[in-house]
Amino acid sequence: MNDTMNDTMNDTMNDTMNGIDDPCGSEEHVQFLINYKDMLETNISTMENKIETYTHKLVEIKQYLVENCEHDVETDFIYSMRNGDTISTMIKYCTKCNLTFR
Ligand SMILES: [Zn+2]
What we know:
Elements: H1 3-17, H2 27-68, E1 73-82, E2 85-94, E3 100-101
Antiparallel strand pairs: 1-2, 2-3
The protein binds zinc ion.
């Protein structure tokens, strides 16, 4: 590979990575970034699994609360603007568990 090609590739890499400094373009630096990439992929995968687990738990807990909380339901209105008009939406919620109802 000639120097011009090398420079072009380095420039492209630098542009793509936005802010990751590549002062020498050495093999060590590339290896470091490969490891870093692998670590980020593993972290993202772990977080995605956590989010899935938490989401599942949350659904279960909400379902339990729907059935087992002695709800104290209050009615309130939320106001929002749409095309210059004020729109009020009625909401019903439990003052104990904070679940909302239709
Ligand atoms: Zn409740």
